[in-house]
Amino acid sequence: xxxxxxxxxxxxxxxxxxxxxxxxxxxxxxxxxxxxxxxxxxxxxxxxxxxxxxxxxxxxxxxxxxxxxxxxxxxxxxxxxxxxxxxxxxxxxxxxxxxxxxxxxxxxxxxxxxxxxxxxxxxxxxxxxxxxxxxxxxxxxxxxxxxxxxxxxxxxxxxxxxxxxxxxxxxxxxxxxxxxxxxxxxxxxxxxxxxxxxxxxxxxxxxxxxxxxxxxxxxxxxxxxxxxxxxxxxxxxxxxxxxxxxxxxxxxxxxxxxxxxxxxxxxxxxxxxxxxxxxxxxxxxxxxxxxxxxxxxxxxxxxxxxxxxxxxxxxxxxxxxxxxxxxxxxxxxxxxxxxxxxxxxxxxxxxxxxxxxx
Length: 358
Ligand SMILES: Nc1nc2c(ncn2[C@@H]2O[C@H](COP(=O)(O)OP(=O)(O)OP(=O)(O)O)[C@@H](O)[C@H]2O)c(=O)[nH]1
Ligand SMILES: [Mg+2]
What we know:
Blueprint: E1 5-6, H1 11-23, E2 29-35, H2 46-51, E3 56-61, H3 68-77, E4 81-83, H4 95-102, H5 104-112, E5 120-126, H6 132-140, E6 158-160, E7 166-170, H7 182-190, H8 201-215, H9 217-224, H10 236-247, H11 258-270, H12 314-319, E8 331-332, H13 351-357
Parallel strand pairs: 2-3, 2-5, 3-4, 5-7
Antiparallel strand pairs: 1-8, 6-7
Helix pairs in contact: 1-13, 7-8, 8-9, 8-10, 8-11, 10-11
The structure holds guanosine-5'-triphosphate and magnesium ion (MG).
Guanosine-5'-triphosphate (GTP) binds near residues 129, 132, 151, 152 and 173.
């Protein structure tokens, strides 16, 4: 049973919201990246409001890690969307034609005014670690954008040109201050969009085992050589213990090393070693939330998570990958008022944003 609502919203993300709004006038189109393993959980609900009517192409990234059949259903369900993977190259060649198709009317107007072949400008947005900079590098054929397998690598915007006549604006990843459903935070954490340093990995590993057993039992049991029937009724932590036991992970005192098992299950899920697993299904709306109180259910009011923020400057964020001083606040258990944008619009900083940028 999770004891914590997962939230992560450091200062650079508050700043990124403003960066997106401010840069919108510089681009023709927004390319929104969603993680193919979690297209619903990885969709930042603030993006629609931030980008308004700007034309948009949606890319489901890391398609080689997701269940191909489910990805196909997601693509069918979302207008102007493509599945891509920069490692296998899937879908990458289709991006430029899709951008030109979406912008066809605008490009024709330019051509009519003698500006045939005008460079298109595209802003790449998405949650942390979803593959924005990797895509920019793939499309530009270089290594201009910094890529690492952890969230929060890109901290400011960067223009990169490509051979296809599209200039790309790589952006920092951005989450939102309060998730509607506990499952969203969990799935973002499973896929590596939330910094592991702020998470209790044993708890997260237990939750992942529970999710895998509930929905992908065959793959989970096959990977860890577990008897599916014998695990019936197991609590999340007991599932993790079963993995530790099967792998022979023990501490010096003889207890099972569940921390090691949690790290392993998380790593193996993220590398698709357990299988190509998609967590969000397009036919399930909203996210099924076995462990969360139902929205509006009597006597089960969800406690709003606080807009937790690491009160760190961008430079500090860039320098340290470890736990930041306010990380303890970043996983909230108690009620706290959700921070709202002021009536001045998304560019108006809240007091917390100001302090985090200081
Ligand atoms: N398998 C696979 N891995 C990918 C793909 N795209 C990105 N990655 C990996 O995902 C990790 C994060 O990639 P980045 O490009 O740094 O992600 P980002 O969205 O720029 O992250 P931030 O700058 O932190 O917001 C890296 O380890 C990449 O190698 C993909 O299509 N397939
Ligand atoms: Mg990046």
